[in-house]
């Protein structure tokens, strides 16, 4: 019975300690604000191992000091002396890559070869895509009189409207119009009869009593 009570008391104390730790962690931000190391600790990124860039005023001071030493050396007549006597040229724009600037005109053989190869490839590509030189156009042949046309040019009538087969020929179309007009005239105007050689034998089609073709005055 005593052992069971002791185990229960030990479990309660462990829970109490855990609660106290939790409360202590929560009160850290209230006690120290955001300046506590446990709150401001940030995981290191990939740029943490890079060297810090020097401030601008330090790079400018080094550049001025190097310029002053170079001016003093040139003024003292040291044109023919060794130029690598400790004077360094600093680049004000850099700092993370060493800060030294190589003198102009110095190129390695590898870079020179690569530049020459790139120039040769560019020239070959431009020559391959260059338009060929065209010859001047030949003069038009001269012929006496008008130039004759071919059957293909003569058949090319361009855009013409659709016409019926019996009206494609203008002569046939006018003849059909004349025949229709004659039918209308025969129905409106009495034809003049020519004198017959024999005696009158009556109307061949009969007399229509309901048809009057006389004009009333």
Key features?
46% helix, mainly alpha, 217 residues
SSE ordering: HHHHHH
Number of helices: 6
The shape, in one word, is elongated
Q: What is the average of the pLDDT values?
A: 75
Query: Which assembly state applies to the chains in this document?
Result: single chain
Percent range for helical residues? Answer: 40-55%
| Main β sheet profile | none
Ranges where pLDDT stays below 50 over 5 or more residues in a row are: 80-88, 95-105
Structural commentary:
The protein is an all-alpha fold and 217 residues long. Helix content is 46%, strand content 0%. The protein contains six helices and no strands. The protein has helices at residues 2-32, 37-40, 56-75, 109-128, 151-155, 170-188. It starts with a helix and ends in a 29-residue tail after the last helix. The model is unreliable at 80-88 and 95-105 (pLDDT under 50).
List the helices and strands and how they pair.
Elements (H helix, E strand, L loop, with lengths): L1 H31 L4 H4 L15 H20 L33 H20 L22 H5 L14 H19 L29
Structure summary:
By secondary structure, this protein is mostly helical. It is built from six helices and no strands.
């Amino acid at each position: 019975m005593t052992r069971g009570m002791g185990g229960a008391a030990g479990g309660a104390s462990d829970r109490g300690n855990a609660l106290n730790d939790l409360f202590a962690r929560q009160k850290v931000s209230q006690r120290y604000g955001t300046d506590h190391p446990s709150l401001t600790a940030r995981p290191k990124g990939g740029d943490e191992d890079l060297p810090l860039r020097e401030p601008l005023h330090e790079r400018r001071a080094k550049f001025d000091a190097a310029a002053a030493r170079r001016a003093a050396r040139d003024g003292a007549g040291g044109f023919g002396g060794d130029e690598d006597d400790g004077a360094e040229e600093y680049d004000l724009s850099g700092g993370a890559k060493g800060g030294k600037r190589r003198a102009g005109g110095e190129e390695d053989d590898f870079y020179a070869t690569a530049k020459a190869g790139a120039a040769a490839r560019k020239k070959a590509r431009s020559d391959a895509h260059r338009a060929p030189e065209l010859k001047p156009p030949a003069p038009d042949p001269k012929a006496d009189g008008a130039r004759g046309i071919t059957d293909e040019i003569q058949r090319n009538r361009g855009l013409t409207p659709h016409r019926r087969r019996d009206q494609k020929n203008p002569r046939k179309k006018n003849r059909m119009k004349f025949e229709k007009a004659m039918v209308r005239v025969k129905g409106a105007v009495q034809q003049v009869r020519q004198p017959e050689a024999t005696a009158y034998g009556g109307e061949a089609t009969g007399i229509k009593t309901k048809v009057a073709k006389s004009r009333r005055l």
